[in-house]
Every structure is written in C-alpha cells, then in structure tokens.
Predict the structure.
Amino acid sequence: MATGWAGDGAVNEQIDATVKDAVERARRQLPQGPGLERCEECDAPIPPARRRAMPGVRLCVPCQEAHDQEASFSGYNRRGSKDSQLR
C-alpha cells in the first residue's frame, strides 16, 4: 500500500521488480553448458531429447524428480488455517 510521498504505481513497480529478481535468480540456477550422457547419481543413460531440451542436464528424469521433491519439502503448512499453524 503506497502512502506518503510514494507515487501512484509504487506498489506495482515494487512487485514487478521483486518478480523480475526472482525470475533472474531462478534462471541463474539453471544448469549451463553441455549436459551429461549418463546420470551422475545412478549412471543411467540420459536420452538425447532430454539433453537437447535441458542444456547442462546432469540427472535422469527419476533422479531429478527425487531431487526436486527433497528440495521442495519445507515442513510448513502454508495452506492450513491460522489456528493449525499456531499449534
């Protein structure tokens, strides 16, 4: 909520800048360069189509899915009611 001396579009500009920064940060974290032909975790072959679609790929699909699930678990109920979060 813009108040005081802030311009009319100050809130939207701040939101846009925050989203832009998050997108840039996510793009920097993507793998770069030539991908591997075999998964670095399970040594399974990585199909050429996956290597073309994901430059710098290092994991096969099953290992990548497992890695993504591990990284996304936070243990915090973001969708629960406020009361459930206070327990």
